[in-house]
Amino acid sequence: MSFLARTVTPLLIALAAATPLKAESLDVRIGYLQWVPDQGPVLSNVIPEPEDAGLRGAELAINDNSTTGKFLGQTYSLQSDVADSEEAAIAAFDAMRENGLDLFVVNAPASTLKALTEKAGDTTLIFNAGAEDDALRTGQCHVNLLHTIPSYSMLTDALGQWLNQRRWDEVFLITGPTEADRNWANAFRRSARRFGLEIVEDKPWTFDADLRRTASKELPLFTQARDYDAVVVADVRGDFGEYVPFNTWLPRPVVGTQGMSPVTWHRVVESWGAAQLQNRFRELANRDMNSEDYAAWAAIRAIGTAVSDLNSANATEIRNFLFSDKFQLAAFKGRKVTFRDWNGQMRQPIPMVHPRGLVATAPFEGFLHPNTELDTLGFDRPESECRNNG
Amino acid sequence: MKTLLKRTALAAMIGLSTPALASVAYVSNEKDNTLSVIDTETREVIETIDVGQRPRGILLSKDYTKLYICASDDDTVQVLDLATRKIVDTLPSGEDPEQFALHPNNRHLYIANEDDAIVTVVDVDTKDVLAQIDVGIEPEGMAVSPDGKWAVNTSETTSMLHWINTETFEIEKNIVVGQRPRHVEFSKDSKIAWASAEIGGTVHIIDVDNLEQIHEMSFKVPGVNQDRVQPVGIELTSDGKYAFVALGPSNHVAVVDAQTYEVLDYLLVGARVWQLDLDKDEKHLYTTNGVSGDVSVIDVQDLKVIKSIKVGRYPWGVVIDPTS
Lengths: 390, 324
Hints:
Distance between the termini of chain A: 60 Å
Structural class of chain A: alpha/beta
Structural class of chain B: mainly beta
Helix content of chain A: 25-40%
Strand content of chain A: 15-25%
Strand order of the largest sheet of chain A: 2-1-3-4-5
Largest sheet of chain B: 4 strands, antiparallel
Strand content of chain B: over 45%
Order of helices and strands of chain B: HEEEEEEEEEEEEEEEEEEEEEEEEEEEE
Largest sheet of chain A: 5 strands, parallel
Low-confidence stretches of chain B: 9-20
Strand order of the largest sheet of chain B: 3-2-1-28
Number of helices of chain A: 11
Largest interface: A-B, 32 and 42 residues
Mean pLDDT of chain B: 92
Oligomer: heterodimer
Number of helices of chain B: 1
Mean pLDDT of chain A: 91
Distance between the termini of chain B: 8 Å
């Protein structure tokens, strides 16, 4: 503690000395919009999801950008709105645009995102930091829409590669009832075809067989089959999935949205300097950083990297820079991240985690690609109809 | 040699448990909270010393009597007495010290506080904090020029080299380099600084007189994806002939002609090679390989890897005591 007291004075002096040298400064204003529909009652509600997921990641990135900016005469500010309906999110978007903002990070469902991009002008740049839907990357693209959150296919391709390299190629797939569950499962079925996995059982979870039984009694019977190497669960909102591990008929690992999961980000990621990002985030938010936080953080850091280089906050110039060879972002995943020029998706490694540990990080050695191994995850150029850059 | 004799004689006289006499290398093991002591003659680990939590950067005092250790998770710098190999003191360091550099005056220690975006300057004799200087996000690499004029800090997320005047403790210049700059190494005459950018995949050559970049190097390791070629540690031979650049998860060390900046060779070492140090007569180069948990020894004359030595988990820094 005496150390702290001793450092106060030099700290103040140092702060005064570090004020920007340039007289004129560039102010970069970024809008953050969040609209996350209520998931409905779920069976597994022991550990609640943070309501400010995404927002706090955006705030951290603003801090990170500002620290860099003070050496370059650039300041960053965030205008955020956490809406309680799609209409409210669109109204907030309109108000911010009227206020002159043209850089946005959006954590909202695909339908809201589409409504926003349709309203946005040519000079408005939107980062999707919440919607994993493949359709946004395969056909429903928009030239000014970039995605920092991975698609379902990127996540399931990571899982598919992992199952393949473990030679656990016969799987039992359980799919929940929501649209997101079906989208995740469809992505996994595609991954299974790509990576030579056989889905020996493909069963929807309805939980209407016998309501007098608990999930733990129901699941062993539900997962009866001749044999399989692993059970794959598609339960995006976390309804029943947490009860699958250890309750399967055969003693087999559970992977997918629960058990061991491919994710954008998780508190167990610590390599490549990630420990420092996790520490900074925890100090800011008093909780662990999750996938939505990371996606929002990466979007605003990408903007910051472009602004540092361009010394301009012009949305069109930023967009063009992000798709150019000059853009590279150190994003704590072990290799630089860039944007796919056909659909605006941020290429990134995918960590595979269980609640208290990192299992592996995709892509795996041996899955080759002529340009970058990162493009073995998700929809590659020939598989997507999008041509955002011609 | 004189120091060694004196120290040995003294130890023998007092009858302390005498450490082995051979020349030694110290390796910090980030995930074991230990230092491995390697005998450079037999190239074997002869002792493992318990230190603070998450030891990363290590360096020797200019008189080679002490080893300073960044114990990152203990928020302190520990002082190891080399004669007894015991921790004898701690220094205030600011939060999460990762790397540091000692001024030629043997007193001013420049410490990068990774979690706080600050460089702390501590007088190692009085333990006074002389200054805390605001730098970019995640300050990491620290170097002081041999002539004592400049202290340079790299900030990883801000991607800058911050040039600190060692008389005023103020930043005089910021140079933007590739993404995630990790390490700075000065030539012996203080005229050239080499800075590595891990994610950028580049090494930036800075002319110190003008504080301008004069060259940017990149690397191509055959058969290794370009994303995995990530420069970290740099070591220069004092004759100005070679620069060795540790290329991280490409598992190679680049041998560079220090005059023409041409890459002469890539040497295969252990997994995720981080830091490097030359031994006393610069005949051997030691590298820490974080993921494989070992140290590779390179013969500088033949440019061949001759041995790997198993150490603790996630070896981070390596220094060789030239007097031992």
